[in-house]
Amino acid sequence: AAPILDGRAVAADLTARVAADVADLSAHGVTPGLAVVLVGEDPASQVYVRRKVTETRRVGMRSIEHRLPRETTQEALLTLVAALNADPQVHGILVQLPLPAHIDAAAVLDAIDPTKDVDGFHPVNVGRLSIGGGLIPCTPLGCMMLLDQVIDDFRGLNAVVIGKSNIVGKPVALLLLDRECTVTVTHILTRGLPEIAARADILVVAAGRPGLVRGSWIKPGAVVIDVGINRVTAADGRSRLVGDVAAEEAGHAAWLTPVPGGVGPMTIACLLSNTAAAARAGLRGEAA
Ligand code: NAD
Fold first, then answer.
1. Exposure pattern of 94-133 as b/e (b: 16+ CB <10 Å)?
2. 185 pocket-lining for ligand 1 (C-beta < 6 Å)
3. Which mutation among 188, 217, 267 tests ligand 1's pocket best, with the greatest number of atoms within 8 A of CB?
4. Which atom of ligand 1 is nearest to the CA of 209?
5. For the chain, what percent of residues have pLDDT higher than 90?
6. Where does NADP(+) bind (predicted)?
7. Residue 53: domain span
8. Of the residues 21, 104, 169, 241, which has the maximum number of CB atoms within 10 A of its CB?
9. 282: pLDDT confidence band, cut at 50, 70 and 90?
10. Is 187 close to ligand 1, i.e. is its CB under 6 Å away?
11. Do 83 and 167 reside in the same domain of the chain?
12. ipTM (interface predicted TM)
């Protein structure tokens, strides 16, 4: 099996640093506050929100939760976002996606103050990402921090990203480009994907397809980041979580992130880190 790039350990380190930062901010009279808005009862979203709230409190931040019924109107949601934008005790705002179909998610994300947009989904932060600065989306930031554990010099490395979503694939590709990697972004219509993947020194997989990446797609010595989280039913009838990489075939990789315990824990740690950074930027009276 490939050596494990342990997201739980790296996330624990980052979380401890955030907790120290929160203590310092609190000593200066600013307790970072994260507002989480959940509309409806999507079971996966409820799990994510519960986890985020627990971790927020654990590092000493204030957690402000708004659980709204499924029937909430877009207008009511926009009113809430405006109130959170104006609230000086709120430094980060997270609207849990997906939103019910009758709400225009883009309009809601657009309404969040970009300096409080700790998910990094606001168009201003998306734009800043491509020219440097701004709040960086949590999962891509977590991927980069994991890569930083095992790669000193990214310059000139071949990086292949599988998946081009706005929340993972595209931002990861931009961050890798920023490090002077040669980046190839691939997706479901890419031709010859196994050969393209096999040229990667860094392979980031975010497709949401269990076992998509086979052993032959992985260059010996590659660093493989498996972002996928897929619930599958095993032969014994039990359900479990697996990534997008056939981990049992990846023994020749230099490093592989496990699922669970890889990118997932980093995502939450980065959310806390973004919130502390937003609070610190507020303390300095500047945009995050
Ligand atoms: P998405 O569905 O928005 O995008 C998937 C992308 O993968 C698309 O660009 C699509 O073209 C590509 N793709 C799909 N099938 C493919 C195939 N067979 N070959 C090549 N490309 C293919 O998904 P997303 O939101 O980016 O999430 C991707 C995966 O990452 C999911 O499993 C999701 O659960 C997981 N995820 C994990 C975290 C985390 O914290 N670890 C965060 C976000 C998403």
1. bbbeebbeebebeebbbbbbbbbbbbbbbebbbebbeeee
2. no
3. 188
4. 15
5. 96
6. 163-165, 188, 229
7. 28-114
8. 169
9. confident
10. yes
11. no
12. 0.99
